[in-house]
Write a structure and sequence with these properties.
Order of helices and strands: HHHHHHHHHHHHH
Largest sheet: none
CATH architecture of the domain at 92-269: Orthogonal Bundle
Number of helices: 13
Mean pLDDT: 83
CATH superfamily of the domain at 92-269: MetI-like
Oligomer: single chain
Low-confidence stretches: none
Shape: globular
Strand content: under 5%
Helix content: over 70%
Radius of gyration: 24 Å
Length: 310
């Protein structure tokens, strides 16, 4: 297992390098620059600003200079937020983004597994059809449509919840963003759980357990649920990626002070250093989460665990 873990972590380094390279050159290829939104600056001031952020250097020199600083843990200061470096801005937005993301992922797991398992146990019934219809709706409706719709219903018409803002992490302000982030993943997880649970319930070891007279509830909890969750565990990596990318839109819609809002603002303002820092942070976070998912999958499936130990 240790050798497998080391191989996976080493294999992540080329992925991060490719991500860094693509982000660097795509940002430079976009029209405009970090100081275009400002009023016309005197040539001397603009030259000083370009020199401070190494924008006066050739493009390949900027690339290798910034790559060296990233490898050694030195991120350049933000171009738009000149009083802060990139690490400080990410650290300021991280608690909000992590709280939203982890809460949405936990909610998606609880609801998705519960709905999927219930639909599998009630296969081809009205409850099964209703659950899968709701799941397909959650998959089909994008978050940038669902978020304003829920705001209109629960904030404007009913007045139950605030329409946006963070308010120091008040529960009422978190409800709508977490629900919007979680609903698409609830739909996918419930469908995966239903299909996997149906297959497991038809397996020979489940039929043997029923033939021995074991209680149906015990069979579900002890014998069926664990193997049925294997596809769900495999999906946790893409689910985390979906929640991370979805949080960029959700934080902007609800005006939340998370990393996603910084990313949108920095992309609009051509804040190269902040965009690069956020992209690398999100990329590293997704890689680490996929790594943890692989370890969890090995713990759930003894056959996979033996392959890792080989």
């Amino acid at each position: 297992m240790l050798n497998y873990s080391l191989r996976r972590l080493l294999a992540a380094l080329p992925t991060l390098l490719v991500l860094f390279t693509l982000s660097f050159f795509l940002m430079r290829a976009a029209p405009g620059g970090p100081f275009d939104a400002e009023r016309s600056l005197p040539p001397e001031i603009e030259a000083n600003l370009n020199a401070r952020f190494h924008l006066d250097q050739p493009l390949h020199q900027q690339y290798f200079s910034y790559l060296e600083d990233v490898v050694t843990g030195r991120f350049w200061p933000s171009i738009q937020y000149s009083d802060f470096n990139v690490k400080t801005l990410i650290a300021n937005g991280l608690p909000v983004s992590m709280q939203l993301g982890l809460s949405a992922l936990l909610l998606a797991l609880l609801l998705g597994v519960s709905i999927g398992a219930y639909a599998a146990l009630k296969q081809n019934s009205k409850a099964d059809y209703a659950a899968m219809t709701v799941a397909m709706t959650g998959i089909s409706v994008p978050s940038f449509v669902l978020a304003p719709l829920l705001v209109l219903i629960f904030a404007v018409w009913l007045g139950w919840l605030p329409a946006g803002g963070w308010n120091h992490g008040a529960v009422a302000n978190q409800v709508l963003p977490i629900v919007v982030l979680a609903l698409p993943q609830v739909a996918w997880i419930s469908r995966l759980t239903r299909g996997s649970m149906i297959d497991v319930l038809r397996s020979p070891f489940i039929l043997t357990a029923r033939a021995k007279g074991l209680p149906w509830g015990l069979i579900i909890r002890r014998h069926a649920l664990k193997p049925a969750l294997l596809p769900v565990v495999s999906y946790l990596g893409p689910a985390a990626a979906g929640i991370v990318t979805g949080s960029i839109v959700i934080e902007t819609i609800f005006q939340l002070p998370g990393i996603g809002r910084y990313f949108v603002q920095s992309a609009v303002n051509r804040d190269y250093t902040l965009v690069m820092g956020v992209v690398l942070f999100y990329g590293s976070l997704i890689i680490v989460f996929n790594f943890l998912v692989d370890l969890l999958y090995a713990w759930l499936d003894p056959k996979v665990r033996k392959e890792y130990q080989a």
